[in-house]
Amino acid sequence: MIAASSPAGPAFEGGLVRCGMPGSEGAIESVRLYPEGFRYQTIGGVAPEGICGSGLVDLLAELRRGGLMSPEGVFADRAPEVGVVPERGITLSRLDVSHLAQAKASNTAGQEILMRVIGVRPDQVVRYQRFATAPAPELARRQLRGA
After folding, report:
1. Is residue 127 part of a domain?
2. What's the distance, CA 139 to chain centroid?
3. Residue 90's domain spans which residues?
4. Is residue 2 part of a domain?
5. Position 66 in a domain
6. At 135, is the pLDDT very low, low, confident or very high (cuts 50, 70, 90)?
7. Cys-Cys link to 66, which of 33, 35, 37, 78 (CB 3.0-4.6 A)?
8. CA–CA dist 82, 9 (Å, integer)
9. Is residue 108 part of a domain?
10. Residue 40 in contact with residue 85, Cβ under 8 Å?
């Protein structure tokens, strides 16, 4: 096993994302989009205070799956932000999406450099993402499928 680490964690935990926070009690850790809006789960089952890394990845995937965000990160109606839990002030802005894209680029660059150094191609590697203190198996499966 060979591993690479890129210092993108702070971008997912409040460093750059306005409603981002560490994976602690009150953090939205999973998000699903339904016709009536977003449904979410928080760590500890308490009222949401922000969104941790796994919740942000879920949110981006759901926005893309639902056609509410372009591959470039532009919201479908060109709004400056999307309300996730608007009654609690939890939103995702276009700037937040930009910061997350930059963090992902950092991770991708780290992986590509490591693969080049050890002489393997991307199709020879199984990538698995881990957030906070627990692996996210469904997230990993979605990443492996390219979703």
Report:
1. yes
2. 10
3. 9-134
4. no
5. yes
6. very low
7. 33
8. 22
9. yes
10. yes
